[in-house]
Design goal:
CATH architecture of one domain: 3-Layer(aba) Sandwich
Strand content: 15-25%
Shape: elongated
Number of helices: 14
Structural class: alpha/beta
Radius of gyration: 74 Å
Helix content: 40-55%
Bound molecules: adenosine-5'-triphosphate
CATH topology of one domain: Kinesin
Oligomer: single chain
CATH class of one domain: Alpha Beta
Length: about 675
């Protein structure tokens, strides 16, 4: 049967060096302490053991403390009464605990505690704490046995018994003290060992913790390394694949390289041959360069000669030249009679009025009155095309590129074909002199570039309307005056005029179209869209020859004069306009007459037109007058006037003209 008493615990207080007491007899018997306590494992085993010493933070509790006197408890054989020792030392009186269902028959037994002498109990145990057998006390053996029954009044026997008990207890106490001392020594040793072990344990625990942390870290590192390793494995696979590919490509490239090496070898051989050829060609080139230089010198000389010849021819032809162009009948004039014009040769025409008097007799039309003959530098019949006219004019454009001043003006009665000749229409076939001149300039420039000339082109467009200069490229109204470039030069310029720098024929055509749109036009009796102003297209050609350090400036004036008109034919609203037009045209006639008569004073400044054309008419300019005449019989008188006027101009000779050429400083 298991004891219902609480199981004893043995503990060692960590703080105190002295272990108080060892309590249980059971435990004392099993207190088989090891000789050495250095091993942690051994200590742990002790901690685990029920009957062992709890070394970790152990402390002997109060109930576990060994009593200072003998506290051995002995169970009654009868199990009827449990006797417990009283806390008092040497107190023999014991308190009986009655168990239900048990009754004592002996009155003495009820008074006497059922306690066996401790000496006997101790002797029966007879085992020390250290496992050594305890020596039996000799006194107990020699003592005379006491009577078991004592009468009430036998105080002496009672005393002897008590004395004996006391002596026994005393002896027991002494033994116990000895045991206690022995145990104390062992406990001290244990305590000492425990402290050192505790320190070691702490150290080991710290180290263990550190190692655990390190282990954790290492395990984390290990995981990372595993992941990295996996990635590296994947990368390795990729790299292996790419290595395979690269190896394949390398093989291909190696093959290619071999091929190319062969090609290079061939090419090196070819190169050597080429070098030899090149050397030969360099020699030839040098020889050719020398020849080219000679040729260029010759060409330059020839160019000079050509210019001189060209100029001589121009001079021989006259610096004021006149072309006469007879326009064809247009659709709306089909029913109208025409003058009789005979083209005697390419420079002469004969004109007479149309005589219709005998037509009824069936003899056909014939010239009425005297036939008049006029000779010019060139006569263009109605069949002549724009291209035919420009062919004759193109030489003058070349002169402008060479640095001469050139003036081309279309003169004639209103509706005679001046604007058609100068501007024409947009179709290339019907393009007039101005657009053709522009194209020709750019074509000629290329030729001149081969000779080393570079050109800058400036263009301005103006009209003289009612004796006022109007800028056809600028919408802002400004005052424009005609001024001399300087006292020496006979060239003129117009103030506040918008000058456009031209880079291509398209740009020049664009300017021309703007000017055409801005020009003052009105319907006259002879023309639905009559130009009521004198329009002037001024193109300035500035050429530079770097090598020869030469610079040339040529001015090209392309003038479309307003048509002369009889005042009586005009509407009143247009009379001032017509007066101004006629005035300026008659002034033009006066200037030409003065030049013919070689008068000292030439009235250039009487009108804006003659003032502006002054350098072209009497100065340093090659002038071409394009006389336009209408074939209509109605216009006969005006045509005759124009022919006479043009004829006068044709006989007008200006002095030797000079090319504007300067040496660049
Ligand atoms: N050579 C030609 N071939 C065909 N048609 C022509 C020719 N010359 C002129 N014409 C036509 O005659 C008409 C009048 O010509 P244009 O307007 O050029 O005369 P103009 O002298 O400029 O007149 P204005 O002085 O009044 O301006 C136009 O319809 C034009 O197309």
């Amino acid at each position: 049967m298991e004891s219902r008493l609480p199981k004893p615990k043995i503990g060692v207080k960590k703080e105190t060096n002295s272990v108080s007491k060892i309590v249980s007899s059971e435990s004392s018997s099993s207190l088989n302490l090891p000789e050495s306590t250095n091993s942690t494992a051994t200590l742990k085993d002790y901690g685990k053991s029920k009957s062992g010493i709890n070394l970790r933070g152990a402390a002997l509790t109060k109930e576990n403390k060994m009593p200072t006197k003998s506290t051995t408890m002995v169970r009654s054989k009868t199990m009827a009464t449990i006797s417990r020792p009283n806390t008092g030392v040497g107190n023999a009186s014991k308190v009986g605990v009655k168990r239900p269902g048990t009754q004592s028959t002996n009155p003495i037994e009820t008074k006497r505690p059922n306690i066996r002498p401790i000496a006997r109990a101790a002797a029966s145990n007879n085992v020390g704490v250290s496992g050594k057998s305890l020596k039996p006390t000799g006194k107990t053996a020699t003592t005379k046995p006491l009577p078991t029954k004592v009468s009430k009044w036998d105080w002496k026997t009672k005393y002897e018994i008590l004395h004996k008990d006391f002596s026994s207890l005393k002896e027991k106490h002494k033994e116990t003290s000895e045991k206690h001392d022995e145990l104390q020594i062992i406990v001290d040793d244990l305590s000492h060992n425990q402290n050192s072990n505790v320190n070691k344990i702490e150290m080991l625990e710290t180290k263990n913790n550190e190692l655990s942390l390190e282990l954790k870290k290492l395990s984390t590192d290990n995981k990372d390394l595993i992941i990295t390793n996996e990635k590296l494995q994947i990368d390795l696979k990729h790299l292996e694949l790419s290595l395979e590919k690269t190896s394949e490509e390398l093989k291909k490239h190696e093959k290619l390289c071999k091929k190319q090496e062969k090609i290079i070898e061939d090419m090196t051989i070819h190169n050597t041959e080429l070098k030899i050829n090149l050397d030969n060609e360099i020699k030839i080139k040098n020889e050719l360069t020398l020849k080219v230089n000679d040729s260029q010198r010759l060409l330059h000389q020839m160019d000079k000669d050509r210019r001189i010849l060209h100029n001589t021819i121009q001079e021989m032809k006259g610096n004021i030249r006149v072309f006469c162009r007879v326009r064809p009948k247009i659709q709306k004039e089909e029913d109208k009679p025409m003058c009789t014009i005979n083209y005697i040769d390419e420079c002469t025409l004969e004109i007479a009025r149309f005589d219709n008097s005998d037509s009824s007799s069936g003899c056909g039309a014939k010239a009425r009155g005297a036939r008049q003959e006029f000779s010019f530098d060139k006569v263009f019949p109605p069949t002549a095309t724009q291209s035919d006219v420009f062919e004759e004019l193109s030489m003058l454009v070349q002169s402008a590129l060479e640095g001469y001043n050139v003036c081309v003006f279309a003169y004639g009665q209103t509706g005679s074909g001046k604007t058609y000749t100068m501007e024409g229409s947009y179709e290339p076939e019907y393009e007039g002199m101005i657009p053709r001149t522009v194209r020709h300039i750019f074509e000629e420039m290329k030729e001149f570039q081969l000779l080393g000339w570079e050109y800058k082109i400036e263009a301005s467009f103006l009209e003289i309307y009612n004796e006022h200069i109007v800028d056809l490229l600028d919408f802002n109204q400004k005052t424009h005056e005609i001024r001399m470039v300087d006292n020496k030069a006979k060239d003129l310029y117009v103030t506040n005029l918008f000058v456009e720098e031209i880079e291509s024929p398209e740009e020049l055509h664009k300017c021309l179209r703007i000017a055409q749109q801005n020009r003052a036009v009105a319907a006259t009796k002879c023309n639905d869209r009559s130009s009521r102003s004198h329009s002037v297209a001024r193109i300035r050609l500035i050429g530079t020859h770097e090598k020869n350090q030469e610079r040339s400036v040529g001015n090209l004036n392309l003038v479309d004069l307003a048509g002369s008109e009889r005042l009586k034919d005009e509407a009143i609203a247009r009379q001032t306009e017509t007066k101004n037009i006629n005035k300026s045209l008659s002034n033009l006639g006066n200037v030409i007459l003065a030049l013919l008569k070689k008068q000292d004073h030439v009235p250039y400044r009487n009108s804006k037109l003659t003032h502006l054309l002054m350098p072209s008419l009497g100065g340093n300019s090659k002038t071409l007058m394009l006389l336009n005449i209408s074939p209509l019989d109605d216009c006969f008188n005006e045509t005759l006037n124009s022919l006479r006027f043009a004829s006068n101009v044709n006989s007008c000779k200006t002095g030797n003209i000079k090319r504007s050429k300067t040496i660049i400083q």
